[in-house]
Amino acid sequence: MPSLSDAEFAGLEAVARQVRLRVVDMFATSGKGHYGGCFSVTDILVTLYGKIMRVDPSRASWPDRDRLILSKGHANAALCAVLSQYGFFDEGELATYSKLDSRFGMHVDMHAVPGCDMSMGSLGHGLPVGVGMALAGRADHKDYRVYVVLGDGECGEGSVWEAAMAASHHKLDHLTAIVDRNRLSLDGFTEEILALEPLADKWRSFGWHAIEVDGHDFRALYGGLLRAQEMRGKPTVLIAKTIKGKGISFMENNPSHHSSASPTGKQLEMIKAELAGGGR
């Protein structure tokens, strides 16, 4: 199985750093944002768009493209920053984020953002839609793959597990779910609110191939996603163990930064210095 070269690894790190800095600028403009979940999912999205997914930024609606659903739609700022990095639109447009009439808002809008395959906001709907996309691809004799990025708190939704059963029943091996397992949701730590562990075994009991990886290790993410492509006869889920607020020391694993006001002044300067110095 191929692995990332040192140059490829460094390239992904550089993109992830730039994405986080861009998100900080977007939130500084809007006055608030979902810092924690955007920074935990950044490395997952960068790996998908940078090394895994078959997409063409010049043809965002190309019928044979791979699909991505950001089911945790409140992390839209991270997705938009990643899409701009890979050429779906000019990154200068992100300066309008969350302003009146901007196409970039707090949640994903497929009708406004090139490269966005599904609008999301209310949690629990991404995987059901992903199952539908995968079934449509099979019916149309297409070979595209479907990727669904879920929040771990979202895995308390019954619709997620209904979709998981359907995906297994239909043997949708071209469907991959990635759980951003940062162990925090809006209301606090997931294991205190609605315990998910043993999460990988739960997915396996629903007929999925489950892989646990470090969600901030590009080589682990890349290897896990390649293994998902090789799986036959069942869908795959990657449980990506992440840190909410990754890259900003006072936000990491801090429940108060699920959605919070944007820092200003010296605190904002400190954040940018941390990220520019390699924090991710």
In a few lines, what is going on in this structure?
By secondary structure, this protein is an alpha/beta fold. The protein has helices spanning 6-30, 35-52, 76-85, 126-139, 158-169, 190-193, 199-205, 218-230, 265-276, and strands at 32-33, 67-70, 146-151, 175-181, 184-185, 188-189, 209-214, 236-241, 260-261. It has one domain: Rossmann fold.
Characterize the structure shown:
By secondary structure, this protein is an alpha/beta fold. It has a single domain (about 5-275), classed as 3-Layer(aba) Sandwich (Rossmann fold). The protein is about 40% helix and about 15% strand. It has helices at about 5-30, 35-50, 75-85, 125-140, 160-170, 190-195, 200-205, 220-230, 265-275; strands at about 30-35, 65-70, 145-150, 175-180, 185, 190, 210-215, 235-240, 260. The strands form 3 sheets. A 5-stranded parallel β-sheet has the order 2-3-4-8-7, sandwiched between helices. Strands 1-9 form a two-stranded antiparallel sheet. The model has no long low-confidence stretch (mean pLDDT about 95).
Descriptive keywords:
single chain, 13% strand, Rossmann fold, 280 residues, 9 helices, alpha/beta, 5-stranded parallel beta sheet, two-stranded antiparallel ribbon, 41% helix
